[in-house]
Amino acid sequence: MAAAEITDSLEADAFKKLYPDQFYARFIADGIRPDGRPLGRARTASIGLGAVSTADSSALVKFGNSTALAGIKLEIMVPKDDTPNQGQLSIAVEMAPMCSPDMRPGRPSDAAQVLVEQLNNALLASAKAVNLDDLCIDPGKAAWVAYLDIYVLDSDGSLADVTLLAAVAALATLRLPHVAVTDGGNVVPSSEAAEAAAPDEMAVEPTKLQLRSVPLALTCGLYKDQLIVGLTAEEEALVATSVTTIVDDQGRLIGQLKAGGRAEMDIARLQDCIEAAKLRYAELAGILQQAITQYDGSG
Amino acid sequence: MQPTAGPGPSSEALAKRSDRTELQLRVLTCERSLLHRADGSAKWSQGQTSVLAAIYGPRLTFAKKEHPETCVVEVLVRPKTRLPGPTERQTESLIRQCVEGVVLTAMHPRTAILVVIQVVQNDGCVMACALNAVAAALVDAGIPMHQNFVSVTSALMPGASVVIDPDLAEEQAAEALVCSACTTCRSWPEASAAQKGPAVLAVYTRGAMPVEDYLTLVELNRQGCERVAQFSVMAAEKSLVGKSR
Amino acid sequence: MEFVSPEGLRLDGRRPKELRKLRIKLGSLDGTDGSAFVQLGNTKVLAAVFGPRGAPTGARSSAISCVIAVSAISVQGDRRSKERLGRQATEFSRALTNAMEQLVPADILKNACIDVHVQVLQADGGLFAACANAALLALANAGVPLRDICAACHTGLLESTALVDLSAQESMQQAPQAAILYECRTQSIAIMQTDNKMSTTALEELLELATEGCIALVTAMRQALISSTVQQLSTSAPHASAAQRRD
C-alpha cells in the first residue's frame, strides 16, 4: 500500500512538472490554489525586527517562502550644494545567489535593478515616505546618508511586496543618533559634546525617524479571467499578467504597475486590484504595528 | 519619464498651455525605416520629445538564451545622457512584457528579437513615446503580431486639474503621472465576455493621488490612445503605400 | 583595555577556552537543495547548496564552487570595511572550494556540479570559521556525501593567553591568530589561515586549542544534523502510518 501511495504522489509531481498549466487550472476551477489558499488571500507575513545588530536598523520579512532582509546603516556626508538642508536615502537591492537555482553570483541582476527602481519610486518619488530634511544635521555642513540595503534571500514570488515591507519596517525602526558638529567640523555624538560643555546634563536619546507615509504593496495576477491575489513564483510564471498596487495609510494610491503581459485589464479589474490592496494593507499594517510595538518595548 | 526632485516651476508660474488645451495631444510625427541595418526602425515624436526605436530580429541567438517554443524578446534602453541605471531597467522590463504580449512569439521558436531604444530628446512623456516608437518599429519590421498598442501619459496637476501629454515642465510640476498603453484592436485571444468596457495593456504611475483621480486619468489615457491609434494607423498606411511603389 | 582579566574572564565574560553560543538551523530555504543557518555568538551566516545537478553549458574551472558574499549591513564599520572583508572573503572562498573538492567523492563531481553560496548576515569575528561550518552543514543537509566530518575554528593569542573563538573586538588587535578547518576522522588540517607573526611555540599552542575547538563543534554539528533528520522523518511519517492502516 505504501507503494501505491508513493506512485500517487509521484504521478502528481510528474503531472505538475510536465503540465504545470493544467495542474494549476484544476485547482483554480475549484476556487483554491495548490497551497490551499483561496484565490483572494495573500500569504501570511512574518516580520522580525532588529535581526542584524551591526546595522542601525534591520527587518527580516517572510511571505511564505519569499524572504527579504533589509538593513540600514547611517553615515555622515556633506550635503550637496543645491540641497543644503537634505540628507540622502540610498536604496540598493541584491538578489542573493541562494534565492533561486538560476542565479549566479556576479553583477546585479536586472530583476534587482527593477526592484530598486520600484522602491525608489514608491518610497521617495511617490509617497515621499522619508522627508530628506529630517536627515539634516547642520545645514550645509553635515547630514545623514542612510544606506538601505535589501537582500532577497529566497525568491518565491511577490518580491515587490516583500522588499517594500522590509524597507518600510527598517525605516520605521530607524533611530537617528543625536550628534553635534564640533568647531573643527567633525561630527561627534552629542553626549561627548555635551560632556565637554556641561558634564551634568543627561545624555540625549536618539530620535526616531518619522515616516510621512507608510506605503505597502500587493501583487495580483490574472489567470483565465480570475483575479489571483498574492502570487508565488510558480503562479507568476503561469498568470497571463500581473499588477502591483501600492497604497498608503492615508488611502492614497502610491503606484500601480501593470507591465504588459498576455492579457489586458479593464478599469473595473484595476479597481478590484486596488480594493484587494487596501484589504491587504489593513492586514499588514496591523502586523507591522504589532512588531514595532513589541520591538520598541523590548529595545 | 522622471520628474526630478528639484524645484520645478510653481503652479502659479506655470501658465495655462499656450499652444493647446489641457486635453489636447501634441503634434505627433512618425518616420519609419530610418536605419538600413535594422530589420525595422521608427522615430516617434510628440511635440519636442523624440525617441528612436530599432528592431533586430527574429534572429539566431545563443543556446543559453533561446527558448524551444517561443521567441525571446530583449530590450535595451539608452537615455539621452548618462549611463543606463535602474530607471532604464524598469522601462526595459515594461516594454519587453508589452512586446511579448502582442507579438506572436510561437511563430518563431528558438529566435530572439532585440529592441533598442534611444531617447533623442526629452520634453516629457518619454515612456509613452518609447512605447509608440517600438510599436511603429514592430510594424516596420514586419513581425507577426495579433495586436498593436499605443501609449499616452496624463498628469494630475496641483489644483486637481488634469492634462494629457504633459511636457517636461508640466511633468516636473505634476503631483502624479499615469502612463498607460492600450491595444488598438478589440479582438484579444485571452479576452472573455466578462471583460466589459475599455481595457489597458500596461499602466505605470508615479506620484501619490486619490483613487478617483487615478481612475479619471486612466479613462483619459484610453481616450487619448484612441486618437493616437488613429494617427498610427494612418501613418503606417502612408509609409506602406510608399514602399509598395 | 585588558582582554583577559586576572580572574581569567574575557570581555564578554567567557573563559579562554569557551566557545560562544552556537545555534544551527537546517533546511530553512525551501528552493534550495540544502541550507544551513549558523549563529556563533553575534556572527550570523546563511549557506545554501544547489546540487548535485547537471553542469550548465560553458566551461567551469571546477565542478564545485563556493562563493562567500559579505552583506553591506553585516559589518560594524562603514562601507569601506565591507570592501576589505569582501576581498578576504574572495580569498577564503577559493581555499574553501579546494577543501570541498577533496571532501566530496570524485565520482559525484565527475558528472555533476555543486554550487555553494554563503551570505554573511552579521559579522562579529570568527567569520570564515562560521562560513566554513555553514557551508559543510548545508552540503550535509543537501545529502551530498562527504568523506569526513569537519569543522572550522578560530583562535588567537592575546596577553599570553590562547583564546578560542575570537570576537571582532578581540581579533582587531594585532595579535597572532590562526583559523583551521579540521577533518576529524583523518585528524588532519584541511585549511590553515594565520594572521600576524608568531613564534612556532605559539603556533603549536594555537593549533592544539583550535583542534579542541573543532572537535567540540563537530559534536554539536553532528547533533544538529541528527535531530534535523529525525524531525524530517517524523513529519513524513504520516505516509507510513496511513499505509499501515490500509494494510
Q: What does this 3D model show about the protein?
A:
The complex is a heterotrimer of chains A (299), B (245) and C (247). Chain A has a single domain (38-174, 209-298), classed as 2-Layer Sandwich (Ribosomal Protein S5, domain 2). Helices cover 35% and strands 28% of the residues of chain A. Chain A has helices at residues 2-18, 20-29, 110-126, 159-172, 190-197, 233-238, 267-298, and strands spanning 45-49, 57-63, 66-77, 88-95, 136-138, 142-154, 175-176, 179-181, 187-189, 207-208, 216-223, 226-229, 241-247, 253-258, 265-266. In chain A, the strands form four sheets. In chain A, strands 1, 2, 3, 4, 5 and 6 form a six-stranded mixed sheet that branches. In chain A, strands 12-11-13-14 form a four-stranded antiparallel sheet, with helices on both faces. The radius of gyration of chain A is 23 Å and the shape is elongated. With 245 residues, chain B is an alpha+beta fold. Chain B is built from four helices and ten strands. Chain B has a five-stranded mixed sheet with strand order 1-2-3-5-4. In chain B, β4, α1 (86-102) and β5 (112-121) form a beta-alpha-beta unit. By secondary structure, chain C is of the alpha+beta class. Chain C has helices at 79-103, 106-111, 127-141, 168-171, 200-235, 237-246, and strands at residues 22-26, 34-40, 43-53, 64-70, 113-122, 150-158, 161-164, 177-183, 188-195. The N and C termini of chain C lie far apart (71 Å). Mean pLDDT of chain C is 86; it is low at 240-247. Chains in contact: A-B, A-C. At the A-B interface, α3, β14, β15 and α7 of A face α1, β8, β9, β10 and α4 of B. β14 of chain A pairs antiparallel with β10 of chain B. Chain A: It is found in: Cytoplasm; Nucleus, Nucleolus. Chain A: Pfam families: RNase_PH, RNase_PH_C.
Query: What is the H-and-E element order of chain B?
Result: EEEEHEHEEHEEEH
Count of alpha/pi helices of chain B:
4
> Helix count of chain C, per DSSP?
6
**Main structural class of chain B:** alpha+beta
CATH architectural group of chain B: 2-Layer Sandwich
Distance between the termini of chain C: 71 Å
The CA-CA distance between the termini of chain B, in Å, is 39 Å
What's the CATH topology label of chain C? Ribosomal Protein S5, domain 2
The average pLDDT score of chain C comes to 86
Q: Write down the Rg of chain B.
A: 18 Å
Strand order of the largest sheet of chain C: 1-2-3-5-4
| Residue share in helix of chain C | 25-40%
Please name the two chains that share the biggest interface, counting residues whose Cβ lies under 8 Å from a Cβ on the partner chain: A-B, 43 and 50 residues
Report the order of strands and helices of chain C: EEEEHHEHEEHEEHH
User: What would the principal axes of the Cα set say about the shape of chain B?
Assistant: globular
GO molecular function (chain A): mRNA 3'-UTR AU-rich region binding
Protein name (chain A): Ribosomal RNA-processing protein 43
Family (chain A): Belongs to the RNase PH family.
InterPro entries (chain A): ExoRNase_PH_dom1 (IPR001247), ExoRNase_PH_dom2 (IPR015847), ExoRNase_PH_dom2_sf (IPR036345), Exosome_comp_Rrp42_subfam (IPR050590), PNPase/RNase_PH_dom_sf (IPR027408), Ribosomal_Su5_D2-typ_SF (IPR020568), Rrp43 (IPR033196)
